[in-house]
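Model the whole thing, not chain by chain.
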Amino acid sequence: MPAGSRQVPWFPGAILLALVVTAILAPYLSPQSPTDGNISRKLIPPVWMERGDWEHPLGTDRFGRDVLSRIIYGSRISLAVSLVAIFVAGTLGTLVGLISGYRGGHVDAFLMRLTDIGLSLPIVLIAVVMVAVSEPSFRNVILVIALLLWPRFARQIRGETLAIKEQDFVALAVVAGRSSAWIISRHIFPNVVPTLLVVTTLQVGFVILLEGTLSFLGVGVPPPNPAWGLMIADGRGYLATAWWISLFPGAAMLLTVLAVNLMGDWLRDHLDPKLRQAGAVTVTDVPVETPVEPPVGATPATPSGRRAGL
Amino acid sequence: MARYLIGRLAQTVLSMLVVISIVFVLTRLSGNPVFLLLDVNATARDQEILTRHLGLDKPLPVQYALYVANLARGDFGNSIISRRPVVEHIWERLPATVELGFVAMFLSVLIGVPLGMYSAVRRGGMLDTGARVFAVLGQSMPAFWLGLMLILFFGVVLGVLPAGGRGTIWHLILPAFTLGYFTSAAILRLTRSAMLEVLGSDYIKFARLKGLHEQVVLWKHGLRNALLPVVTFAVLLFVQFLGGAVVTETVFAWPGLGRLILESITTRDYPIVQAGVLVLSALYLTGNLCVDLLYSYLNPKIRHAGR
């Protein structure tokens, strides 16, 4: 995907900023309590509809809880769960990747076999079963997601480590008698940070969707927490009469994941050109003979005129 | 090649063993089905008999060994609730899942390939931009929410399509689209880039120089060559549909394997959960294996890269 624009994409940037601010300032922004509802005010439609009022701008659910307030507080859950899960998975995966790439040999073979297995599992299915039988809770959701996600980090970081390992400054450090731990932490790790950042951003969206899916299926964040997935599930039985219960939290989730993904794409194109080819096959797969002459016909040769984002 | 083949095969078997172990450990360590099956008046003696009957009195490693041995013989045990063999339950539900996966794959190719092709031909045009929006949205869309919104629009507001269940061809449209949307976006991107590559090649130039009709150039000379990675990918998708069926089947009350698993989790019917996850995982892993082998057979560059 070509991307010419150098400036930070404003659309995903603005949404992400708004999201973070919303999550931090949730208590000040929400008009009502996210968990306490007034049962006599249940199933009130959004403000622009008949019977709607400004007290509940996006309506209320079947317990009379304010939908807007729950969405606002829900942003905290989405962000917290995905950030913590990714932090755990990223730490583990980076560690495995660094060690595997630097050590090579049997250690590498073993760790990469493990990674391959991890990558080959049907993640959603396994996650559902894992959380379901281990009692749904914040901790379990985070642990399960982290457990299933670390191989994605390990694979990328290992590849990067292999390339960095061959460079002169690493050889010099070895000659200077530095320990492996020192070399990995001082010389190699700083150089994989851009890749790590890109991989992290590209995974955030996936994790938010995964958490949402688990919560929706009733095997994620436990009620009455205002997780977006739970809210969408809550509204399932009321699609015909109270569609707003499901529609708005889903829209919030879509917007969030969209912004994160666009940001991830942009970061990938600008921080780490190597990842652009995406997938396990990297630099080696580039054909040796690239046509110098621009192809004739409908396809313009240079991507310079194209803008990133939507 | 033989070494790669054996290695890849061994990895699939290992992955399957990991799935078996995860599923076994999890389902045995959580809660005791004996309390669920007996009512409150059951005596300690009743509990003991049932525990022994279900084989739950033996130590976990023994239970595990027995379980793997039974699996090897194709014996998945009986459902705790219905007492019928688990295999029967699985066979009942599997066709619905495969049917849905198949139609979803078909639909996503049907949407993705033409869109991807024309956005490559008219690069930077309206359709290309539209297709990109479609693709980006597809990768960010919560599938369960999309399903509900489709039900809301086509089932409730317009009232033209059924909201759930299985039966006529109309019942298939919404769940298949929900399942296939994400992947039609992926197919679109894949077709687009494959097509761009092909369109820049000499033989396309030559075909145009020969004065062939543009549609012939595109469909016969272009798409045919761009299609190979797309088709391989479509098979991979079908396999992933099986793994992701839990969500869509739940939303649309589709009587498939995914929904059976979720129902059985609620009733703590372990044997069914185990068997369901194992069957879906086995299909998933085998499918992935086939695709990988096909890829490496077709493309020696992949065969030797990164290993």
